[in-house]
Amino acid sequence: MTGPAGSLPLSTGRGSREATAIVYQELLNPHHAQTYTGRAYWGLFPFAALFVPVLTAGLFVAWEAVVHLTGLTRTTGEFWSVARPLLLGLGWVHVILIFITIFSMYAVWMERKVSAHMQCRTGPMEVGRIQGSIFLWKRFNFRLWPKSWSPHGWLQTLADGLKLMAKEDLIPKDADRWIFILAPIVAFTGVFISFLVIPFHGVLSSFIPADLDTGVFFFAAVTSIEAIGVIMAGWASNNKWALFGAMRAATQVVSYELPIGLAFLTAVVAAGSLRVSDIVAAQGPDYGMLAWFVFRSPFLLLAFVIYFISSLAECKRAPFDLPEAESELISGFHTEYSSMRFSIFFLAEYAAMYVVAAFAAVLFLGGWWTGIAPVDHFLADAAKSDGLLPRLAAVGIGVFAVVGKSMILVFFQMAARWTYPRARLDQVMYLCLKVFLPFGLLTLVGGTAWELWLEGGWPKALLG
């Protein structure tokens, strides 16, 4: 794609200098960047307008974290008791949005690199190479790192995002306009809300956006909202390929909610609670990695396998990417979408990948527990400690454990895409209804009997 006459192409592959010129010419220059209405549009103005509330919310969340870490007391009044939940909720909204944005940028780059290495190629390598000169004197040209330390294209996704912002936003003539506009918002909202019960850490209660008593039930309910947005997109596009993709998504996502729900119930029975923090607390710290639910009984291991594979279908990831099948349906439900509306669907997909992976880490892989008994005992003691350094260290370890486990599962999601061929729709439904559903019932009944027989699982029965 190129801009107006005389502008540079949007993809040169020559690194950051050309990318900077392209961004100015295509996006920031009001004489070149125009919407389909013909009016000048400065693409970064909305982001600049959001800077103040984002900074304010970030500072508030930081202050809350400092209060919890240091054990400071806060004078409370009637106004503060009303305003604090509102401000804290606003702060978490911005924190989650920033996390989703950064993760999605990294995940897109990561998937490109994973696919490239699995196919014996390099993938993006150039965009992100930073170099400069001292006082604009080329004689003293320097690099921030040696050429051998290539950035491996780590800013490629940012460049692609800027390119999407510069593209024209089109709505088909015969589309249902308002449903077409709302569809990506609904799809992203479902994924965004599900982040509320995902813990970043458990030592401090403020690191769990909403530790609900029915957290597992809430997660199972809100993750289905994305399918509604997909169906809206396929219907409103007035395109038969988009409608086929939407019908596939409806069939696939709704069906796989059954084995996912059975896997959730198996973990809930083992923990005796629907609260996410209680489920994680039941997996440590006494027996290290053996306390994780995935090792607690063979039925919980089977439940983890069922959930992980079913989550691929829930996220429409290969080999269950039938709603988007490019070789059959062009791009499926988002065939008619362009510019930022298309990128919102893209953002929702990668955010959903992290959400289902993080929830698997919380339910079956110990959450913020590391699996190393001495370290886990340190985490448990730090929650009761008044010292600042132990609490800071515990927060860092816990966040690293949750995010690290989630990223490992995300890697396997990406590897599966480039390993297995796309399944047919009848094969997808057969796997759900005739394999996962009966085995899910088996795991629930067997897991319940196991907990009645060996309360606390076999580690507690054998090790005391």
Provide tags for this entry.
mainly alpha; 464 residues; disordered N terminus; 17 helices; two-stranded antiparallel sheet
Walk me through the topology:
Blueprint: H1 16-28, H2 45-70, H3 78-118, E1 131-134, E2 137-143, H4 156-166, H5 177-194, H6 215-222, H7 225-236, H8 240-271, H9 276-281, H10 293-296, H11 298-314, H12 326-329, H13 339-364, H14 373-384, H15 388-417, H16 425-453, H17 457-463
Antiparallel strand pairs: 1-2
What does this 3D model show about the protein?
This protein is mostly helical and 464 residues long. It has three domains: 36-98, no CATH class; 125-171, no CATH class; 172-464, no CATH class. The protein is built from 17 helices and two strands. Strands 1-2 form a two-stranded antiparallel sheet. Strand 1 (131-134) and strand 2 form a beta hairpin. Helix 7 runs antiparallel to helix 8 and helix 11 packs antiparallel against helix 13 (339-364). The radius of gyration is 24 Å and the shape is globular. The model is unreliable at 1-15, 26-49 and 133-137 (pLDDT under 50).
